[in-house]
Each structure stands twice: as structure tokens, then as C-alpha cells.
Amino acid sequence: MKRILIRGTAIVFSVGVLAFIVYYVLDFLIKLWKPMIMAMFDREYLVTPLTIVFTILLVILVGFLFTHKRVVNRLRKFPVINWLSGEGKKIPQTIHDMPGALVKFSEGSYYIAALVGHQKFTDKDGETEVMYKLYCPSAPVPWSGLPIIFAKKEQVIPLKISFGEVYGITTSFGRSAPEILEELSLEDADATVGSSES
User: Fold this and answer.
1) Which of 9, 38, 117, 126 is deepest in the core (most CB within 10 A)?
2) Separation of alpha carbons 94 and 196, rounded Å
3) Exposure b/e, 133-150, CB count within 10 A at least 16 = b
4) Mean residue pLDDT across the chain
5) 53: which residues sit within 8 A by CB, 6+ positions away?
6) Assign residue 121 a region: left if phi > 0, alpha if psi is -120 to 50, beta otherwise?
7) What are the backbone angles phi and psi of residue 115, rounded to the nearest 5°?
8) For the residues 63-81, what does the mean pLDDT come to?
9) Which range has highest mean pLDDT (53-62, 148-157, 159-168)?
């Protein structure tokens, strides 16, 4: 019974929050569109349906403009437009495609993480060392995990799983971990991470 009450409360609360958001967004849009609709049609009952129709048409128009190459090319000289159209700095590979890894934090113990890149460090003697950049997700929100970790190659074991699978293992408290976590060769891991930074 307790489980049913908790689940019912969660569903009702979620629906209530969604309805609250929709109500206030719609109220804002109605106030935005109402002067123009009243000036055009002078019919109060048309305000709400036409607000919805005009908003949908506006979204479609904006989407069309920002996917039309000729229009985007003309607007690209404006930095804000360039950013909105996604034509700025691209991320060649999303974090969800990056390989998972085990990173050593004490003798015989490892964090599971996403292998997100390389980083060069130069010491006071001018010697350069390349280290792995790793991100350890947390549950229930992956972005609340540890900050970026820098680790030497000998402290990292690349795995043949993606960040999505790493996140799945984390949020299931380890229950969704495959029976065997296969190791990825260092060369393959370097090639995968290197392609994301090119």
C-alpha cells in the first residue's frame, strides 16, 4: 500500500507541475499575442486558439530559417545568430559516444568513468607528459559527479563500453554492469579520444 501511495503521489505531483508550467507559459503567450489578434479579428474567443496556432507557426518558421543554408549563411555574420544556428564551434563527438574506463584511486580500487580526452602537462624542467581526462558520473544526475579527473595512462583501464553504459551502471548502483567488462586496447582508446578532439 505504501508503495502504491508513493507512486501515485509522484505521478500526481509530476502531472501537476507540468500543468502548472503549461498554464503559465500559455498565459504568457496569450498576453503576448492578444493585442495583435484583437487588432486583426476583434474576437475575444479567438485569442487562445489563435495564440496556439501562431506560436506553432512561429516555431516552424524559425526552425525552417535556421535549417536553410542560404539564410543561415547570410545571418552568420551576427555572432548570436551563428551560435543559435549551431554553426559555431562544433563538438565532433558527444560524451555519450566516448568510451568508458576504470581509473585507479587506491590500491585495488577503481572509479568507473568516461574517457573524455587527453591533456598535456609540462613540468618545471620542460618535460611533457600526456594524461587522460576522465569524468566520473553520479546518480541520479550524471552531471553531479566528480570534477574532471586527470590520470596517468598506467592508472587507467579503457573499457569496451560507452558513457551511456557507464551512466547506466552508476544509476543502477552497479546492478546493470555486464558480467564481464572487456578491456579496450590503449591504442584503440587513444584513437577514439583523439578523434573527438580533432
Assistant:
1) 117
2) 8
3) bbbbbeeeebeebeeebe
4) 76
5) none
6) beta
7) -85, 105
8) 68
9) 53-62
Other residues' Cβ atoms within 10 Å of the Cβ of residue 53: 13
Please say whether the beta carbons of 72 and 85 come within 8 A: yes
Tell me the HSE value of 158 on the side-chain side, using a 13 A CA sphere. 20
Burial 86-118 (b: 16+ CB within 10 A, else e): eeeeeeebebeebbbbbbeeeeeeebbbbbbbb
What is the distance between the alpha carbons of residues 14 and 36, in angstroms, rounded to a whole number? 34
Contact 118, 132 (CB under 8 A): yes
Which residue, chain included where needed, has cell 516555431?
Answer: 59
- Extents of the domains making up the chain: 2-84, 95-197
pLDDT number for residue 54: 92
Distance separating the N- and C-terminal Cα atoms of the chain: 55
pTM of the model: 0.41
Question: Looking at residue 92, what is its pLDDT?
Answer: 41
Enter the CATH code of domain 95-197.
2.30.30
Instruction: Return the pLDDT at 181.
Output: 65
